[in-house]
Design a protein that fits this description.
The complex is a heterodimer of chains A (247) and B (242).
Chain A lengths: L22 H33 L5 H16 L2 H15 L2 H9 L4 H28 L2 H9 L4 H16 L1 H14 L11 H11 L4 H29 L10
Chain B lengths: L1 E10 L2 E11 L4 E5 L6 H8 L7 E6 L2 E2 L7 H6 L1 E4 L11 H11 L5 H14 L15 H13 L5 E5 L7 H16 L4 E4 L3 H7 L2 E6 L2 E7 H6 L4 H10 L3
Parallel strand pairs in B: 3-8, 3-9, 6-7, 7-8
Antiparallel strand pairs in B: 1-2, 1-4, 4-5, 9-10
Helix pairs in contact in B: 3-4, 3-5, 4-5, 5-6
Classes of the chains: A mainly alpha (247), B alpha/beta (242).
């Protein structure tokens, strides 16, 4: 370590130049936005991903193709680029009045754009997991549901999806944690979330780089780990007696 | 009850069924046998429309199965089916497995479905396991539950697709006993199986298939006495030898 680095953990209790709050308050504010983006995006990802992933397994070629196209678009383009497309390109494509409103008057535009971009990006990944979960079940399960007189929709609702979701809890957990980590890209469109605040702090404190980066790092670890814990509680609660999943 | 008329089916260019015709009258028990790959499982899956057919007609209780206008879920709800690998719903308890079809398809109340389910579990000797999950039962027990689940829908006929092929030898008889009782009560049954003892005991007719064709369709006595075709004779001499 460079000898002349001056540690100053007290920096978090100093007030920011432009106002009367401390850097700590600022960081916690950033944490709030990070959590808000991640959770809102996760809700979108889970809902859309479940629908798209299910559609990809429906015995109808046209419907399955729509799901396929969705996944390939949102999975194959970098998240940062997708965010820029939603932020800079999409508003230009809207009808004139709407376009003006989005660009000038839309409240919380940066936040909403970030949630949308991260939610759709993650939905493609969730969709792939849901599809894999459904396809991992024996073909006989679908037949058994249909033979009982269920419609295709009922077969998914009562037979296929309950098991598919149980099976994909481990990869879904990673994806939920990824939602927190990927939310960092929101800084690029100016949401005051953790990454944004820590960069800002590096500049304004005149060199307290390590403190400014370590605290957000620890906060990310705590968030991801909390997501992990929550998912393992769900996994335990939904355990099926006598059913063995390869670990 | 079940009429299969000149049915042919292809997977791509490969023909799996060729001009199959047979029928099963009300109360009749018909055993379908034949070597692996002869198309017997495929044929039985066509009866309730789990597999489409490209030619011919299948009529169950007056309704044509392969007519696009047919309400397949409704038709299937009163045609019971039992699978080789049981296919119980692993995330539901045994009693839930028996109740779900009754409540969601037949619209029975939860209490009514539960009561009917418990009666059937008692009948197949699984009542004490009602609140366990499929993964906690043996294969033979699971298959008996699967039969009870099919019966919970008050079927007009029952289809069995190799119901004992995946079972340990010791468990085969407990499943066959349930099926024999069912046959003796007059249930209409189509059974794909290699259990010739079962066929001798309760079948009215035996259908023998080979290479996607129905080679022999004869009353049980004729089939076991002196089958017409060489292929059926060979088959019988091989499986009855031991």
């Amino acid at each position: 370590m460079a000898l002349n680095y001056k540690w100053n953990w007290g920096v978090f209790f100093e007030t920011i130049p432009s106002g009367d709050v401390t850097y700590l308050t600022w960081i916690l504010h950033g944490l709030g936005w990070t959590v808000a983006i991640s959770l809102c995006a996760w809700v979108i990802a889970l809902a859309l991903g479940s629908i798209i992933g299910t559609l990809r397994t429906v015995p109808h070629r046209g419907i399955a193709l729509i799901g396929h196209a969705w996944v390939e678009f949102f999975r194959n383009v970098p998240i940062l680029l997708q965010l820029f497309i939603w932020f800079f390109v999409v508003p230009e494509l809207l009808p004139r009045d709407l376009s003006m409103w989005v660009k000038q008057d839309m409240p919380a535009k940066e936040f909403i754009t970030a949630v949308l971009a991260l939610g759709l990006f993650t939905s493609a990944r969730v969709a792939e997991q849901v599809r894999a979960g459904i396809q991992s079940l024996s073909r006989g399960q679908r037949s058994a549901g249909l033979a009982l007189g269920f419609t295709q929709a009922q077969t998914y609702r009562y037979v296929l999806l309950p098991m598919a979701f149980r099976i994909i809890i481990p990869p879904l957990t990673s994806e939920f944690m990824n939602a927190f980590k990927n939310s960092g890209v929101a800084y690029a469109v100016g949401v005051w979330e953790l990454v944004f605040v820590s960069r800002q702090m590096v500049e304004e404190t005149g060199g307290q780089v390590i403190e400014s980066l370590i605290v957000p790092t620890v906060l990310y670890i705590i968030c991801s780990y909390a997501a992990n814990l929550l998912m393992s509680v769900i996994e335990r609660r939904s355990h099926v007696p006598g059913f063995i999943v390869a670990k | 009850m079940i009429q299969i008329q000149n049915v042919s089916k292809w997977y791509g260019n490969f023909q799996v069924l060729t001009d199959c015709s047979t029928h099963i009258a009300k109360g009749e028990v018909v055993v379908v046998c034949g070597p692996s790959g002869s198309g017997k499982s495929t044929l039985i899956k066509c009866v309730n429309g789990l597999e489409p057919v490209q030619q011919g007609k299948i009529i169950v209780n007056g309704t044509q199965v392969n007519d696009p206008a047919t309400d397949l879920p409704k038709l299937r709800s009163h045609v019971g089916m039992v699978f080789q690998h049981f296919e119980l719903f692993p995330h539901m308890s045994i009693i839930q497995n028996l109740a779900i079809g009754q409540t969601k398809v037949l619209g029975r109340s939860a209490d009514e479905a539960h009561e009917r389910g418990m009666k059937l579990l008692d009948r197949v000797g699984i009542k004490m396991h009602a609140n366990k999950f499929p993964g906690e039962l043996s294969g033979g027990q699971q298959q008996r539950v699967a039969i009870a689940r099919a019966l919970s829908m008050d079927p007009i006929c029952m289809l069995f697709d190799e119901p004992t092929s995946a079972l340990d030898p010791e468990m085969i008889s407990e499943v066959l006993d349930v099926m024999v009782d069912l046959a003796n009560e007059g249930m209409t049954m189509m059974v794909v199986t290699h259990e010739m003892g079962f066929a001798r005991k309760v079948a009215h007719r035996v259908v023998f298939m080979d290479h996607g064709q129905i080679v022999e369709d004869a009353p049980k006595e004729d089939f076991f006495g002196k089958p017409h075709s060489d292929r059926a004779q060979q088959f019988l001499s091989k499986i009855l030898n031991h």
